[in-house]
Design a protein that fits this description.
Blueprint: H1 2-11, H2 26-41, H3 50-54, H4 62-71, H5 77-81, H6 94-108, H7 113-121, H8 123-142, H9 163-191, H10 199-211, E1 223-224, E2 230-231, H11 233-260, H12 273-298, H13 309-331, H14 338-355, H15 361-377
Antiparallel strand pairs: 1-2
Length: about 400
């Protein structure tokens, strides 16, 4: 054991004052340091994709560090299994080191860069302020139809906001979000220099994304959150959130097809496909984010980056408000309050779309890209032969 300690001390370049590369930030240098230690130990190799991917490398350059940081799902299992974790002098904390770099990549690759930096510094404040401001803006627009306020209109929200107006507003915001995310992930993808994305690699990465495979702790028992106890609730709440979001998006897509292809404008019956999908998605986006917020509030500070909590909670707050206001519109669609409820809901949805490229939503996109790179990489020969594929 003493010989192993000496080997790992040397491999890990324990002196942080002399990082391997002067181009690395302090956070990136810390990931490089702990990966050198882990590469010498490899006790956690079976936990998740990070550790076998690590064995394909001896040196950890900036692109490698960004790739591994986004491949990490922050399950926390390796922290509690590590014999070199604090209070050991090596102070190996892979989840925290990866989380700090992962947050940095959201800003580094964001487009335009200034917006990414702004949201990272004050995510919760920006999210709530933007939602409130947009809701107020829509309520001012609503004032132009003051004669309709208080009247039950049978769910006809186009009476308050004409279809073309909504299509223009939301099309512009959503289009910008897709563009910004596309530019960001494209820059990230080019920087990590992947190989050829074959069909089997794409299929495996898609499977891992849809299952949230690496939120099982590598052994099927789940993640660590408040302590060293394993729990599957983080994975379950992510599933509620992910599939709830997809169901809401599907409801919008189906309604768009109804409107443009079938000539069937809203409002739709409660038993229609758009309303059913939206209702299912809305419930999922209540359960999932509420659970994630509960876990976030209880999460041990050693298992993440405390500086990212405003960003995390800002995204969770927008998801919760989107769901709550959407279900409120559905419940009040035949009442005189529908106009105000609708303005509040649409303002929150616009804020959600506008902040997608600059908040926690980005982690799903970057992590999917990292999983695809791993699916490609594991099919290539490991020339170092330091570990199994």
């Amino acid at each position: 054991m003493k010989q192993l300690d000496v080997l790992i001390r040397e491999a890990g370049r324990f002196d942080l004052a002399t990082p391997a590369s002067t181009t690395l930030t302090d956070n990136e240098a810390e990931v490089g340091r702990v990966m050198q230690i882990c590469n010498a130990c490899r006790y956690c190799e079976g936990f998740c994709a990070v550790f076998p991917a690590m064995t394909h490398r001896i040196e950890f350059e900036k692109a490698d560090i960004h790739y591994l940081a986004n491949l990490c799902h922050n399950c926390g299992a390796c922290l509690h299994a590590c014999q070199y974790a604090p209070p050991h002098e090596f102070a190996v904390n892979v989840p925290q080191a990866m989380a700090k770099v992962r947050g940095q990549t959201y800003s580094d690759y964001a487009w335009p860069p200034a917006l990414g930096a702004l949201y990272r510094r004050s995510g919760l404040t920006v999210a709530l302020a933007l939602a409130g401001g947009l809701a107020l803006f829509l309520m001012l627009l609503l004032g132009t139809r003051a004669e309709l306020l208080g009247q039950p209109l049978g769910g006809d929200f186009y009476a308050f906001f004409p279809h073309n107006t909504l299509a223009l507003l939301f099309g512009a915001v959503f289009g910008f979000a897709v563009l910004a995310l596309g530019v960001g992930v494209s820059r990230f993808w080019r920087s990590i220099t992947p190989g050829e994305a074959t069909g089997p690699a794409v299929a495996e990465a898609t499977h891992d994304v849809l299952r949230l495979k690496y939120l099982d702790g590598g052994h099927g028992e789940g993640c660590n959150n408040a302590d060293d106890a394993f729990t599957l609730w983080r994975r379950r709440f992510h599933h509620f959130t992910f599939y709830g979001f997809l169901a809401c998006f599907a409801a919008t897509a189906v309604a768009t097809l109804y409107h443009y292809l079938l000539g069937m404008p809203a409002p739709y019956a409660l038993t229609s496909l758009p309303v059913l999908l939206g209702s299912i998605g809305g419930v999922g986006l209540l359960i999932g984010p509420a659970g994630l917020l509960w876990l976030n509030l209880r999460r041990h500070p050693a298992q993440g980056d405390a500086a990212q909590k405003p960003m995390d909670r800002g995204f969770i707050a927008l998801l919760l408000l989107t769901s709550a206001t959407g279900l409120a519109v559905l419940a009040g669609r035949n009442s005189g309050a529908m106009g105000v409820l609708l303005a509040a809901h649409l303002g929150v949805v616009m804020a959600l779309f506008a902040t997608l490229p600059y908040g926690k939503f980005a982690h799903g996109i970057y992590r999917s890209a990292a999983l695809l790179k791993w699916a490609i990489e594991k099919r290539q020969p490991n020339r170092l032969s330091l570990g199994s594929d």
